[in-house]
Design goal:
Layout: E1 2-7, H1 21-39, E2 44-50, E3 64-74, E4 78-87, E5 97-106
Antiparallel strand pairs: 1-3, 2-5, 3-4, 4-5
Length: about 120
């Protein structure tokens, strides 16, 4: 299991003053890619899919987000991570966002290869 934290800054906010959803998805993609790359350092991974994308509530400026990535499934050429985002200052609170991110291992030509 891997943890990372992100500080929500004014440049991360949308026009309503809440964290831009695309920014959170980029952080999730990055955090889970790092987890996969640490678990399988000999592989080159590309993102294949994210499942359900549902934001449970808005996140404001100055929030600290905890992003937890845990390997959920490993196949022959792909690996899936369960990602949970929560309030870093209230770790026992319900998650703000959860999803599964699947990566596929590729060679230098972009073709699938075994993990």
């Amino acid at each position: 299991m891997n943890f990372t934290h992100r500080l929500v800054l004014p440049s991360d906010l949308n026009h309503y003053g809440f964290l831009f959803g695309g920014r959170l998805l980029a952080w999730i993609d990055e955090a889970s890619w790092i987890a996969a790359s640490l678990d399988f350092p000999h592989c080159q991974f590309v993102t294949l899919a994210m499942d359900k994308v549902e934001f449970r509530h808005g996140v404001g400026d100055g929030s600290i987000l905890a992003i937890r990535c845990e390997q959920a499934k490993k196949g022959r050429t792909s690996v899936t991570y369960r990602v949970e985002v929560s309030d870093g200052k209230a770790p026992d609170s319900p998650p703000i966002f959860t999803t599964n991110v699947t990566f596929v291992s590729v060679n230098d030509k972009g073709e699938k290869r075994e993990i």
